[in-house]
Design goal:
single chain; mainly alpha; Growth Hormone, Chain: A; 2 domains; 19 helices; about 85% helix; about 0% strand; globular
């Protein structure tokens, strides 16, 4: 082979490490990931556009904490019950059939009749006057069509990606193929965010916004996901050559530990406790900043069409930057120490959140405002939204590359038993409490101070966020010392 041919082959291995018959299963899985992320980012944009502009950004904390979280537990229990009763392939069709039915009903019946389905303002005002602390619970129930859309959209992403896509990929991909295929799934899947961006802008950035077009895209996407899943299963059953090197797991799959069991495991080890604290701090600080940012976006783009069109721009930035970080993230990890790589995410939060809150504080300062007098109120709001958008994009991009990678690397020096139990326990505690923590803080403050808005709470939320990020940085430094000491000890034992 010539040097030129060898060079081209080497380049191909880097940018397209898929060969021969592997394409028969890789391409359907890649397109499946594309449409899952396309649908999820579309649902996420539409649910925010409806809830933030019509119900209020304050409602998000209540919906996530008191509705999404219990619904996720319920769906998980249903999933395990179905798995015991039938083959896992049938479970997929039942679950995606549920999502398909909901979005068809929402598109054909609920959305066109939204005004009639929402409970009356008189009912809400009367009940709120009787029990002021329950104001936002009442509002969430009043706008129950918006609330159900938010819940179902949230459940779709975690269910389709965690329970079904990766389960299917593991069933048909060998360990050797996984090293080459799995990073490509994430890379190509994020192109779905770019697709969402163009769809949102095309349908909403026009004199007569067309939401039905977007709902129809979601329904078509669900149908395509179902078809791709069936195709991969068919190939796996009828083309044994494609799966001959796949590891067949005979033993029963262990379920994740319960919350009580996870707490015991995490508290049994300072190392695991620090790992759980990283996830909790990320989740809480992200929600606290994100909710305030969405409130400012609503101020700048008050209608659901304008808000949805803006989310189209946001999805484009998120997809582009996520792909960039996926490409360069591994190089960052290779060039710097674990501690330095792990510090990049909280330091990014610290800088961008400080700038974001600075512009919001200025808008609250009235006659004492410095930036508003110099730039104008409208310009200060635009800068607050722009910086908040940058923070949100960077937080999610670094989460998928640097944060997740360093967090997984931290398990390397643990023994096999602690590594297995610890990872499951940390994911349960850190994942659940991280996602729920920010919502609990927001909703609790609004229950105690029902007359306040999210903007009024911003100074309190900024202080809480600063404390959490400081704890996050301290946890990284503490864990970094233990991680490097454990890795050095391993090297000495081997030598």
């Amino acid at each position: 082979m010539s040097d030129e041919g060898y060079s081209l082959q080497s380049i191909r291995k880097v940018f397209w490490p898929i060969f021969g018959k592997e394409h028969i299963k890789f391409l359907p899985l890649a397109f499946m990931m594309f449409f899952i992320l396309f649908n999820y980012s579309m649902m996420r944009s539409l649910k925010d556009a409806m809830v933030v502009t019509e119900v209020g950004s304050e409602a998000i904390g209540f919906i996530k904490t008191y509705f999404v979280f219990p619904s996720a537990i319920l769906l998980t229990l249903v999933y395990y019950s179905l798995c015991k009763a039938m083959d896992s392939k049938k479970v997929f069709y039942y679950i995606i059939g549920f999502f398909f039915a909901y979005f068809v009903i929402f598109t054909l019946f609920m959305f066109p009749n939204m005004d009639g389905l929402v409970l009356s303002d008189a009912w809400a005002a009367s009940l709120t006057a009787s029990v002021p602390p329950l104001k936002w619970f009442i509002r969430v129930l009043q706008y129950w069509p918006h609330t159900t859309f938010y819940i179902i959209s949230e459940l779709f992403g975690s269910t389709m990606i965690s329970l079904f896509f990766w389960q299917l990929a593991n069933q048909v991909t060998s360990p050797a193929e996984a090293k080459r295929h799995y990073s490509m799934f994430g890379l190509l899947g994020n192109v779905g965010l770019l697709g969402t961006s163009y769809a949102l802008k095309y349908a909403l950035d026009r004199p007569e916004p067309d939401f039905n077009m977007l709902f129809l895209m979601v329904i078509v996407g669900l149908a395509i996901i179902t078809g791709l899943y069936a195709f991969v299963q068919y190939q796996a059953e009828h083309n044994p050559e494609l799966t001959k090197d796949v590891v067949k797991v005979q033993k029963k799959r262990k379920q994740k530990p319960s919350i009580s069991e996870s707490i015991k495991v995490v508290f049994s080890s300072k190392y695991l406790g620090l790992l759980a604290l990283l996830l909790i701090c990320y989740g809480v600080s992200n929600v606290l900043i994100e909710n305030v940012w969405k409130d400012r976006v609503r101020e700048l783009y008050p209608t659901k069409a304008a808000y949805g069109a803006f989310m189209g721009d946001y999805q484009w930035y998120l997809g582009t930057i996520s792909i960039f970080f996926m490409l360069v993230g591994s190089n960052i990890l290779r060039l710097v120490s674990w501690t330095k790589a792990a510090l990049l995410t909280p330091l990014m939060f610290l800088v961008t959140a400080a700038l974001f809150f600075l512009f919001i504080f200025d808008s609250l300062a009235g006659d004492l405002a410095l930036l508003s007098g110099w730039m104008g109120v409208a310009m200060v709001l635009q800068w607050a939204v722009m910086i908040g958008t940058a923070q949100n994009v960077l937080s999610k991009s670094t989460k998928y590359s640097l944060f997740d990678s360093t967090q997984k690397m931290a398990y390397m020096p643990l023994d096999d038993e602690l590594k297995t139990k610890g990872m499951s326990a940390v994911e349960v505690i850190g994942g659940r409490f991280g996602k729920m923590g920010g919502g609990v803080i927001n909703s609790t403050l609004l229950i105690v101070l029902p007359a306040w808005t999210l903007l009024d709470l911003t100074p309190i939320l900024a202080v809480i966020c600063a404390i959490i990020v400081a704890i996050w940085i301290g946890s990284v430094l503490s864990l970094g010392r233990e991680y490097h000491a454990a890795m050095d000890a391993q090297k000495e034992s081997v030598a």
